[in-house]
Design brief:
By secondary structure, the protein is of the alpha+beta class. It has two helices and five strands. Strand 2 and strand 3 form a beta hairpin.
């Protein structure tokens, strides 16, 4: 289910967060611009969507973000508000 969302919106593959900003969970990101990113955190079978700011793309998952804001907790693509929240950053 989430694979379709991640592929459609061109998120990266999941990788382990070593910064402890996402409790060591797996994360995937999509670049919005040079310093701002959308991040999906995978926690068991739940996905949380964040908007974040990093000095460099290579810092994601390695260093704490300058800004981290939860956009959607427990993302579910069947809920229109969740889809709208994701799209507002991508359109």
């Amino acid at each position: 289910m989430m694979d379709n969302v991640l592929d459609y919106f061109e998120f990266s593959s999941f990788f382990k967060d070593t910064s402890n900003s996402f409790s060591g969970n797996d994360i995937a990101f999509r670049e919005l611009n040079e310093t701002h990113f959308l991040i999906f955190e995978k926690n068991d079978l739940k996905y949380n969507l964040y908007v974040s700011k990093f000095a460099h793309k290579n810092d994601i998952g390695k260093k704490k973000p300058d800004i981290l804001e939860l956009v959607v907790r427990d993302y579910d693509k069947s809920i229109s508000e969740h889809r709208i929240a994701l799209r507002q950053y991508l359109e």
